[in-house]
Amino acid sequence: MSGRDRVLGRVRRALADVPADGLAYEQAVDRGYAREHGERTAEETVDLLAENLADYRAIVHRCTEDEVAGLLMRLYAERGSRTVLVPPELPPHWPAAVGPVRIHDRAVSTPHELDRVDSVLTGCAVAIAETGTIVLDGSPDQGRRRITLVPDHHVCVVRVPGQVVASVPQALERLDPARPLTWISGPSATSDIELDRVEGVHGPRTLEVVLMSGA
User: What are phi and psi of 49, to 5 degrees?
Assistant: First the structure.
């Protein structure tokens, strides 16, 4: 008897006393889980997102859609960024007409070329308040996964309140599991056995999140 036969035999024995009522798995198993912890207004949910992002050492900014270009220029100037990598279909009014040189992602771009870029600017698919998480799904305003992993400085614009949800279950309902999902909770960081934190090991050292209202 093979290992497969033994495993299937145990499964059959375990299910021997289960009535064959024909119920689908989704109906037979209770899925009445809490979808969020507590009740909040949309404004309170955005405030919770900002609080948890900051707790993960992301730098949080707030602005209106009319103010986003000026804010981005200030962030680049403060960092001294001379180049900014942009996805193929970033809203044209986000980057200002003047400022860092825009670098467009290309399939032929090498990791070394991406590493020389000072900053990267993207949108997001959804933001989760309870976990302080930004999710990217490779949409045209976010670009390919690698452009947000190689450059050392990532600026992510979140449209509030439309792209903000309270919990992970609510976020999963908006996401396509077939897309390349990247879940970001703060800048890239790791720690050794002595809990010495090192940032920028496998992603951006600095994450700045712009909560843009009025979009």
Answer: -60, -50
Mean residue pLDDT of the chain comes to: 89
Region of 200 on the Ramachandran plot (φ > 0 left; ψ -120 to 50 alpha; else beta) = left
Q: Which two tokens stand for residue 169?
A: 């279950």
- Positive or negative: CA dihedral 169, 174, 180, 182: negative
Question: How many whole angstroms separate alpha carbon 62 and alpha carbon 79?
Answer: 18
On whether the CB atoms of residues 162 and 49 are closer than 8 A, the answer is no
DSSP 8-class letter at 82: S
- CA 1 – CA 56 distance, rounded (Å): 52
All structural domains of the chain, each given as residue ranges with its CATH number in brackets, are 38-213 (3.40.50.10420)
User: What's the chain's Rg over C-alpha atoms?
Assistant: 22
**Which of these, 170, 163, 208, lies nearest to 56 by C-alpha position?**
208
DSSP state of 161: T
Cβ atoms < 10 Å from Cβ of 89: 12
Give, in degrees to the nearest 5, the angle at Cα 205 between 116 and 72.
Answer: 75
Query: Across-strand partners of 67?
Result: none
Question: What is the rounded CA–CA span in Å between residue 142 and residue 88?
Answer: 8
At residue 152, does pLDDT exceed 90?
yes
Q: Which of 128, 129, 158, 153 is nearest to 141 (CA)?
A: 158
Q: What is the pLDDT of residue 166?
A: 97
What is the band of 98 on the pLDDT scale with cuts at 50, 70, 90?
low
How are the residues of the chain apportioned to helix, strand and coil, as percentages rounded to the nearest 5?
Answer: 30, 25, 45
